[in-house]
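Appendix B, example 12.
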Amino acid sequence: MKGKEHEKGSRSILEPIPLDLKKKMDRLTRSPAKSDQKEICDSRDKGVGSDKSRPGKKLQVILPYDMEVETLIRLPGKSLMRFLCVSKTWSSLIRSQRFVASYYAAKPPRFTVTFTNSVFSEPKRLFIFSGEEEVTSSSSSLVANLDMTIPSVTMPFGGYKYSSVHGFMAVNDRLKFIICNPSTGQVITFHCKATDTCLGYDPVGDQFKALTLLTSTYAHNPSFMVHEVKRLGRGGIVSRTQVTSPPYHPITRGRCINGFMYYGASVPAETPPTPVFVCFDVRYETMLSFIATPQEVLLWQAFTSLIDYKGKLAVVVPICQRTGLSFDRFNLWILEDVTKQEWSKQTFELPLSLPFNIGMGKRMISQGTNKAGEIIFSPATLPDRAQPFYVFYFNPVTKSMRRVRIHGVADTEEFWSRYGLTGICAASFSPHHVDSIAFL
């Protein structure tokens, strides 16, 4: 009877888990710290109507920690979140810092698509899609799946919308700053004292931080700028500190690359204002000296998108045609040496023109590259109601470009009706998002 109760209890616990993973789970429910050898007991009834059972068979299985990690690391983040309730051992393993780091390192980059169902009217909702890039660079279509939606959130109508930082995504909604993890479903919202907030990550200390510029951009000739640094963890803000810098006027959204946060600015003390890049050291929480920047790099002001190009800060600057409604060339500016403040410039011609119309919302912008090194251009808004969503992949080596349809991104009437999408829907595409199962 005891053996039957044990079997019944085991089935009730494992019932929600996919059948193809049941055998792996049976071997992993015991802690490797107690023993590397697992005992799997197979108890069978002696016969129908009998209340006796014969001794179970015992099988010695060696399952080291590395094998457990290798098995779990192959699973999607959402599956691991369900497995947290399997046992305390699994929960401890999945939440451990060592496993979280191994999981992040093993996952290939994905693309994400984010948009809101309205820019100028209620209701507001943030939609987050993601999908896998194809192994080859010849694909003409990709598939995106809806990961999560966040109510009462919108994105500004402009160029650069949100950032993907070490598995987390962040967006400004006026004085609200929203951070979410599509893999775990965690959402953190907190109010800031100002509208300019950026998310950064310190890879050495494994610490997320948010930087807010407190000094108003409308202040008349301030002697210095005040910033607030928020250390994040345990579901919110752990601590706050303030740092100062020489005066400047911010122009672009921030971008975190290898533990440093960059954003375009101008030094207003000079006439005409000098374009620079402000560099913030996330680990040491200090403002480094301003990086001298060619005027052309920040030509498009707030519509400028900063990208991570092979681990370096770069800016894609469209060269518009005479009408100003489209571009068929662009300059790629790369910050080659931060210390020496040296920039390189490459000019590329596109096989076809891309729209750059601000008024009609048809602007195509670049927010990064994929693993193959292709520079990707994506629309700043969704197309007209229930139309295909396209992005363009440009190969700087072969000078070729391909149009890729992202299936599933609000491309049916049923989707628009279900979620009440209306009018202009601000959109953003990130080609280099890596899944993480970390919690803040």
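Residues 1-16, 28-53 have pLDDT under 50 and may be disordered. The helical segments are 2-14, 22-28, 65-73, 77-83, 88-95, 97-106, 413-419.
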